[in-house]
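Researcher: Sequence of Scavenger receptor class B member 1 follows. Predict its structure.
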Amino acid sequence: MKLLRTKKRKAVVILLAFAFVFTLTFRLAFDAIFNAIIDMELRERLPIRNGSTAWKYWIVPPVPVAFRIFVFDIVNPDEVLAGTAVPTVVEKGPYIYRMHLRKTDIQFHDNHTVSYRQPEKFIYDEEASVGSENDTFTTVNIPFLTTANTLKYESPFIQTFTDAFFRSMNETTFMNRSVYDIWWGYKDPVLEIGAEILRKLNLSSSVVNGKFGFYMDRNNTDDGHYNVYSGNNYDFSNYNMIDRWNGLRFVLCWKRVFQPQLALLPPPPLPLFDSLSLTTAPRTLRLVYNRSTTVHGIDGLHFQIPFEEFASAQDYPDNAGFCTPDTDNCLPSGAINIINRLHSLPGSPVCVSLPHFVGGDPYYQRQVKGMTPSQEKHQPFYNYHPLTGVALTGSRRYQLNLITKPYKYFEAFKNMPEAFIPVLWIDGVADMDKETIDLFKHQLQDMLDAVVYVKHGLTALTCLYVLIAVLVVFYWRRKDQKALDPERSPLMANGRVHRTPTQTNGSVTKYDHLQDPYPDPI
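Model: Prediction complete. Tokens:
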């Protein structure tokens, strides 16, 4: 019986040990197995080639972009001209355009890259906006201000004559323009005369064409010829990163050279606590990991453009090349001078900042009233899917400001304050559509969620085997102790098994058999 009991116990021990080792081994190897499966799936789906899963989403990005414009209406122009008050602005918006993207002129190359153009088509969405794109607001007369700034080192006669000419054409310090005018362009009388003079001289200019607008003649156009890595060699370390932009690997801009890097999607999988680089011609901005997040039920990583990207060289030396004309003329942290970078009117005293000067020096907010900076509302961000690198949501935000100051020989600007007056800010909001959300959930996120449960289940099962083993051993010990406990059987004394007496004859006692007080435990 004892031998049988020992064999049963050995069988139980072997079974539990085998189950424990198998489950533990599978749990430890599960991540490697899962990663190998994911790698196979990425190799099949991610390369940019006709027929792959990524192909149709690469040609037509699945994240619709709402191009939201907010304008700043100057409500006290007379007090500003009189020099009795700083400009006070009231934000109006959003005025929303739907931006439609589609890649064209696609060509594949032997070095595993693909080149393309991506025209941007804007359609106004009045229903989603606060009003018509023809709503008007008051701002500084930008062509007039640009002329004053351009001629500031010319002779007093030339400046005075030019000022008189502008005013004879009914040009004033401030102008009332529509949202459409300031963005897409409007005809300016002085610029029209300049364009006419050039035509008579058989000269042409893409700038002096009789119109001005920040995004003039840009609808249905692209921002250059891109060449990116396709991943067709299954190397995703540089997937969708820019190899060349307009044929150039490096671009000289301001007083520094920058290399275009990230076109839209970062290479998967994304590392935690790392930074990315996003190219927004003509410069590259850093994206810094902030936290994990969930977007429409899909796990994501939240990246932000840090405030240091708009810091002065004194506060952030890496930005020294963006000071114009040199580091002695850096703007206070929070804005970057783009006076010679505005394609629609070079020489315009314009600087770019984050909306409402968020993250900038308080100096800017002291010069204009009406700023309400909010990190949540105004700091640019992107939420990326950690496995595929697809942008789940994002918001590209920036603000255009005019740098104003007095111009002695221009009557219209004689009393103009030294200030940074905001004109408008842009919120390019990208949010994944429902069809793509459902695709991600059903084909990817549900699987990833299931994997988490499987991992937890395997871990719990491993612990359960350990618990069962402990309980079995405890059970066996209790059984053995009960078998050896003299208080639990009158037949036990001094640890020996007694015989049962059946007959006594004189002084001799006879025993007919041995009796075990307990049955065999397992």
